Amino acid sequence: MILLRRELGDVLRSVRREQGRTLREVAQSAQLSLGYLSEIERGEKEASSELLAAVCDALGVRMSEALLSVSQRLAAAEEVAAPVPLPVPDAASVVSSAA
Amino acid sequence: MILLRRELGDVLRSVRREQGRTLREVAQSAQLSLGYLSEIERGEKEASSELLAAVCDALGVRMSEALLSVSQRLAAAEEVAAPVPLPVPDAASVVSSAA
Asked: Which of A49, A54, A57, B43 has CB 3.0 to 4.6 Å from B9, enough for a Cys bridge?
């Protein structure tokens, strides 16, 4: 099942790592515990809207940018979850090849 | 303060209304109470990731599409919250006009 919190966690973690910052630094700046931020990044806890705003602020990214990345990741996951079906030969061609 | 749950609620409500469907119909299809869906649409409750997936499924929209709309709404709200500053005349022009 595709879950928002997992994609959101991945986006927040990759932004933090691109900035070369530790969980501790960002958690302190966002005024939440290191363990809680870690759970959010791993997609194990839902971030409340207030907390998400605080984490984006601590990372210096706009929420709209973070959510745009999340939307793109969701779209990619949806493509994998619902792939284009393989072409199935129709009944006539199956019958003719069996003859 | 710009909050994800408010923008998300607005998007879910507008999708439902565009489809001409009632809260009751969508809540039944998503297997949650009418009151809870109403609170989510009004941005009063955070939807868990599982619940958001169920509501998107009931509405027949991809989560990625809903989140893209949310991202666009957040961007518009961020522009309003942090407007471009008005141009301020520089000291020289103020001095010359006072002379």
From this structure: B43
